[in-house]
User: Which sequence fits this backbone?
């Protein structure tokens, strides 16, 4: 593969009451283009990742909308795959360059969630799940609670171990100026927070977030700041949990990661940092196990001992941005933000949360309860 | 380009009260795979085009949903660009093969519109338009009525000439077993039908339709039935009419067509048949002019004289399927159905509506009132 992340841009993540989706997109894309040094007129395509604008705001056709809004006037696409929309759009952008159709494209992930009532957002998010789950009244916290319970029963994973994921990610987020949460928390805070879907507490769950992230992709590898995408893989599984062979792993993650490691010609031990899809704390444990950074059933214990935390070398640092839990989870933006974070880290520009001597990073983005998984590997 | 349309599948188009989106998708995709002779396990990716499932049915994540439903278990994407979703998904599929990511993919367009109240469908369709248009209460018939009025004033195009488009397309649809309407109509029928948005009458407008279409794309050019995609181009314009320089042309269509002719190395006179986006009769006149099959301002008159109609050689036959007007317009399916029709014609399997000795065909798919235009050129 011969794809360069030439520029990155990101807004603050959080409850951005005074920002519109357009203003967020503009900040992220203009920052990415300026950062890339590419002239705006050289941009040839736009890939927009978003899940909720249609369901909650009755606005479709976002590709053309943002192409106009950003003054690009280029071929534009909206790519959707629930919470994996960002990762899918990045891959679509990568393919568009590898195909020879375009030389330079922008991938934009954007979501504005706080303009809508929480129950409307919750209902719209279930659009990522199966019909049966929706009719049964399931919510994503409920579905991931089932995954957590299965993991606890099979491997002895504890609520404290899951809480340790949130503690780590809030610590990382406290070092990230763009993060939604800048407060560090303790295991006790997590355990004493309101129960959302037993065994998951409020602080086991990623929040509702507004935000946008953008990257400029190009086949020009001479870019000085360039970080390269060396693998881009997707896998799918059943939409609903009922169809899965196992509830203690996400097989789409396993497949996408395996294919990505083969494509990149690197292994788990070569990865210095990873952004994984911690929509719930159990999801990060599953991700670390299924990607193969830790052994199945052992990652909960490792988490309690501080593994995967910044500054505890050796081994991979997970979610240096704060992850979905600490940095926030604006659905369509998340997968693009992961690439922004990895790129910043590989450039060595992450300040207080810099992973020492980071050369290879991995991004892992999930849609629904694991129906879609996207894995990208990036190298300096 | 080296892309083969190896297989095609399509459902009947119409008010299919007893069919679900899943059943429609299954029929179209299984037909396309069987037709291609490709083994199901060789399919490596799925691109789903749909606009309304999220807005009207609160179901997102259609890529993974249909990947499971169809028993494919492959990387899957949803691509949206309003009424151009189908064309965009075809292009995304093309790029995925040219990029080397996949060898064989399925592109599925599917829409189920009749399960919802007409006013809900109408409101959801305005998701393709600009915010200003939506807030002003504009509808698509209203927007295209403005385009029609501008064309009438500038070029003297008449209501009769527009009606002739509907007459032609109903005639073609009467020869298409899958079409929504099999009744031929007269200019008088059109002129006497209810006024929807002056000067557009009911029979100037494409209907609300359920349906699905699917194609198997592969880089294998040895496929005996193979028809080849020799150009695939997209262009965008402002989402709303207010931003346009001219109301008597769709500049996105002009751009996409120009680029496609250059890419294919052919000109307008080499095209034997075209499926163009006749969501309203005026839209077909604009399309024929902007693609360059006829001169700007003269196509209305040509239409009255039967040009572009099956059996009136020489010249290009337009909308042999019946187009959106006669065959029906299941939003996400339309752009894929155009490729199905062109492929059938180039194979010579269209029976009564066969275009004599058709060797090169063009498909033109529009999103909104012209914010997105997609042009594909196919060759036997």
Assistant:
């Amino acid at each position: 593969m011969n794809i360069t992340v030439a520029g990155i841009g990101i807004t603050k993540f959080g409850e951005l009451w005074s920002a519109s989706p357009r203003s967020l997109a503009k900040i992220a894309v203009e920052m990415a283009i300026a950062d890339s040094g590419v002239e705006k007129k050289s941009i040839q395509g736009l890939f927009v990742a978003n899940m909720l604008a249609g369901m909650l705001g009755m606005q479709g056709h976002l590709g053309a909308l943002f192409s106009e809004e950003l003054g690009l006037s280029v071929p534009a696409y909206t790519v959707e795959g629930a919470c994996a929309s960002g990762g899918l759009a990045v891959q679509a952008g990568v393919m568009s360059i590898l195909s020879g159709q375009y030389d330079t494209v922008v991938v934009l992930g954007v979501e504005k969630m706080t303009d809508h009532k929480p129950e409307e957002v919750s209902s719209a998010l279930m659009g990522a799940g199966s019909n049966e789950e929706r009719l049964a009244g399931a919510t994503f916290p409920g579905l991931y609670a089932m995954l957590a319970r299965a993991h606890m029963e099979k491997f002895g994973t504890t609520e404290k171990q899951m809480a340790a994921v949130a503690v780590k990610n809030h610590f990382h987020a406290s070092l990230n100026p763009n993060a939604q949460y800048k407060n560090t928390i303790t295991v006790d805070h997590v355990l004493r927070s309101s129960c959302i879907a037993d065994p998951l507490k409020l602080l086991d769950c990623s929040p509702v977030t507004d935000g946008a992230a953008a990257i400029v992709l190009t086949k020009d590898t001479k870019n000085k700041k360039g970080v390269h995408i060396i693998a881009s893989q997707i896998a799918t599984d059943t939409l609903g949990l009922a169809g899965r062979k196992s509830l203690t792993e996400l097989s789409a993650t396993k497949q996408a990661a395996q294919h990505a490691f083969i494509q990149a010609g690197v292994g788990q031990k070569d990865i210095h940092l990873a952004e994984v899809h911690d929509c719930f704390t159990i999801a990060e444990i599953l991700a670390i196990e299924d990607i193969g950074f830790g052994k199945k059933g052992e990652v909960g214990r490792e988490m309690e001992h501080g593994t995967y935390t910044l500054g505890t070398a050796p081994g991979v640092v997970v979610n240096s941005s704060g992850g979905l839990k600490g940095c926030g989870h604006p659905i369509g933006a998340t997968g693009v933000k992961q690439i922004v974070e990895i790129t910043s880290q590989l450039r060595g520009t992450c300040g207080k949360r810099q992973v020492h001597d980071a050369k290879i990073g991995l991004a892992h983005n999930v849609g629904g309860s694991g129906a879609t998984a996207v894995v990208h590997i990036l190298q300096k």
